[in-house]
Design a protein that fits this description.
Blueprint: H1 34-61, H2 65-89, H3 96-103, H4 106-135, H5 141-157, H6 160-188, H7 205-220, H8 224-228, H9 236-273, H10 277-284, H11 288-322, H12 341-357, H13 360-383, H14 394-409, H15 413-437
Helix pairs in contact: 1-4, 1-6, 1-7, 1-9, 1-11, 2-7, 2-9, 2-13, 2-14, 3-4, 3-13, 4-5, 4-11, 4-12, 4-13, 4-15, 5-11, 5-12, 6-9, 6-10, 6-11, 7-13, 9-10, 10-11, 11-12, 13-14, 13-15
């Protein structure tokens, strides 16, 4: 039997808000348990990190990316505890956008939601381009990437249960492919553990290590998709924290195994010099079938991440549209499939625009900026929760917030500049909307 949908949460200061919340908006059905929610998070993280982030991390930190990976994992853990604590108290679609409004007010909520939407739109484009890079004929990468976005948007349009079922299959296949690759690398590619350290873990300095942490954090952000789907998770107070912990733990183990294997076989210099490090790892085994497995696994991982990204983006856009922080037209839920169909179709168009204009590496840095802003607000919001809603000590939220700021300022300069510009654009547009909607005094 399906659980009863939750009621929409109304911020304490709603009576003072410029635009009143919608009365009794259509709600989605709670159909996801711990297993499916965890798989959605794993599918989001594995697709992003394993096939995209290690090369740029090696470029700035060399073998120090191992330290960067540990820092990124710790920051992700702090952020995950904040997200889990908040999601258990506010199990509605929208993630930190909702939490920020509830705990801090409309403006912090908007900044979190806007950061998520812009960052994850770039991330979705990066995943689509990663998929195409492994399977498309030369010259057809961008058209095929756009086609993947359209197909997966249609899957989401027909309901979240289909999303969970497809994600389950993709995650199983990708994990199997990675297991085969790692086993083949250690059995056939003559790994040398001495290569792991290269010229030293700290040869590129702490700035390079912290910059690699910011880039690798991009890979860990998949657990946000679980929180943003809070309105569709059964028994959210129990399921959401458990699913976030399970997904993050599995992702950390996978990333550590892959990173160590890459460095042992290729060395940090070769990892930094290739745009497809796992394909280079497969080629080092001198077996054709290993390369084929990697190509299929990379394509499936990117599709799984893209699928979950579109889902999470749609739910945050839905929540922002309900509060009129985005066009209210986007808040519609399909009467049959019970998904935010207008939001997801609009986002699919925007992702295709990014694909036409950007490249993968630029998208990673920009995505990290937006997502770190999102989690900065999450940590501050969780810090303000009362004792009755508290599941983790406050010092984790303090560390998480400080770490988010540190990783933001150490991202590549261009990512910071573009991120600040787009963030400012969103703030200006919201100010214009508030001024437009403000009643004229008689």
């Amino acid at each position: 039997m399906l659980a009863e949908p939750c009621k929409a949460h109304v911020p304490p200061n709603a009576s003072k808000a410029v635009s009143p919340p919608v009365t009794n908006p259509p709600l989605m059905l709670r159909r996801l348990g711990t297993f499916d929610a965890s798989l959605i998070g794993i599918g989001s993280m594995v697709g992003a990190g394993v096939f995209v982030a290690f090369s740029p991390a090696a470029q700035v930190a060399g073998s120090g990316l191992l330290v960067g990976l540990l820092i990124a994992a710790f920051v992700a853990f702090c952020n995950a505890t904040s997200s889990a604590q908040l999601a258990a108290a506010y199990p509605a679609s929208g993630g930190t956008y909702v939490y920020g409004r509830e705990r801090l007010g409309p403006w912090p909520g908007f900044i979190a939601g806007w950061g998520f939407v812009i960052g994850k739109t770039a991330s979705a484009a990066a995943m689509a381009m990663t998929f195409a890079a492994y399977v498309a004929p030369s010259g057809w990468e961008r058209p095929l990437a756009m086609a993947a976005v359209v197909v997966l948007a249609i899957v989401n349009y027909h309901g979240v249960t289909r999303t969970a079922a497809l994600t389950r299959l993709l995650v199983i296949l990708v994990l199997a492919g990675l297991a085969v690759l790692i086993a083949a690398a250690w059995g056939l590619a003559s790994p040398e553990p001495s290569k792991v350290l290269g010229v030293g873990l700290f040869a590129h300095g702490w700035y390079g290590i912290l910059q690699s942490s910011g880039l690798l954090f991009f890979a860990f952000a998949g657990y946000a998709r679980i929180a943003t789907m809070g309105e569709e998770v059964s028994n959210p107070r129990r399921t959401i924290p458990r699913a976030i912990g399970i997904a993050l733990s599995i992702a950390i183990v996978i990333y550590g195994a892959v990173a160590f294997t890459l460095l042992a076989v290729l060395g940090p210099e070769q990892v930094a010099s290739t745009q497809a490090p796992l394909r280079a790892l497969a080629e080092a085994t001198s077996t054709r079938w290993t390369v084929s497995i990697v190509q299929v696994a990379a394509a499936l991982a990117a599709l799984g991440a893209l699928l979950a990204l579109i889902t999470g983006l749609g739910r945050t856009t839905l929540a922002m549209a309900r509060e009129h922080d985005l066009p209210h037209w986007l808040s519609a839920i399909h009467p049959k499939y019970r998904v935010p169909h207008r939001a997801e179709l609009t986002l699919a168009v925007l992702i295709c625009v990014v694909i036409a204009m950007a490249d993968v590496r630029g998208a990673i840095g920009f995505s990290s900026f937006g997502v770190l802003i999102y989690y900065l607000v999450a940590n501050i919001a969780a810090y303000t929760q009362p004792h009755s809603d508290r599941r983790f000590p406050r010092f984790l939220q303090i560390l998480g917030a400080m770490a988010c700021v540190l990783l933001i300022v150490t991202l590549p300069y261009m990512s910071i500049a573009v991120g600040l510009g787009v963030l400012a654009l969103g703030i200006v547009l919201r100010m214009i909307r508030i001024r437009r909607d403000k009643p004229v005094s008689s």
